[in-house]
Amino acid sequence: MSTRSSNVKVSTAERSTTTTYRTTARIVGAMYLAGFVVGIGGLGLIQSILGAPDHLASLPANSTLLAVGGALWLLAAVWDAAHGVLMFPILKRHNERIAVGYLGFRIMDGLLIAVMVLVILAQIPIGSAYLNAGPADASYLQALSTVFMQVQLDAYNIAMVTLGVSGLILCYSFYRSGLVPRLLAVWGLAGYAGFLGGSVVEILGFDLMSIHTIPGGLWEIFMGVWLIVKGFNRIGLAPTDPDDGVLPGSDQPGSFHDRVVG
After folding, report:
1. What's the structural domain count of the chain?
2. Are residues 80 and 148 in contact, defined by beta-carbon separation less than 8 angstroms?
């Protein structure tokens, strides 16, 4: 009777775990897609204002739009950190150091994007002061705005470097664990290597016109749809360490793996 009760408890725990990770997959997938839309929308607003000729003169009239663009990017920064938090318990089942590394770089990515947003919003008071400034002050404010735009660009590129590192960590874990098909993991490794290498090149002063972000960006869109529709492979939810596979009521190490796959 007690063995049967234990088996029921184990089955219930396994179903609960599978359901939890299925929900996590859908949330992470939705965040990939929403992050892409929010990032493109925010970037479009910001560039349309700060990229215009004599942008300081027109900035006060467009300050609300610039603030909206900054808010969208700030939302994307929060989602970047949330990725690490949501994936931590799943990645930890396979390798705790990888899970911690992914979480750390995702948080770093979010913080750098937040810094970028603050620098963008600092352009608003500069634009207001520019309208009432004399020739000497106007020249100074234009130079200050140019410096801020360079800081904004550097913060963005460094954030993309951390994104590249975190993506490589994630896709390496995907490849080793089987959480997603290995072909997708290899695509992700190549895409995030492009993020990392291209962003380093841009920090050094070469303009790649964001071409290096295309493979990784397409991967995130595809992965978002995949996680919503397919979720994680069930075999990948089993821990790779046999000792981690023992649940209350199981007689053999790795029995959780056997049950999940079966």
Report:
1. 1
2. no
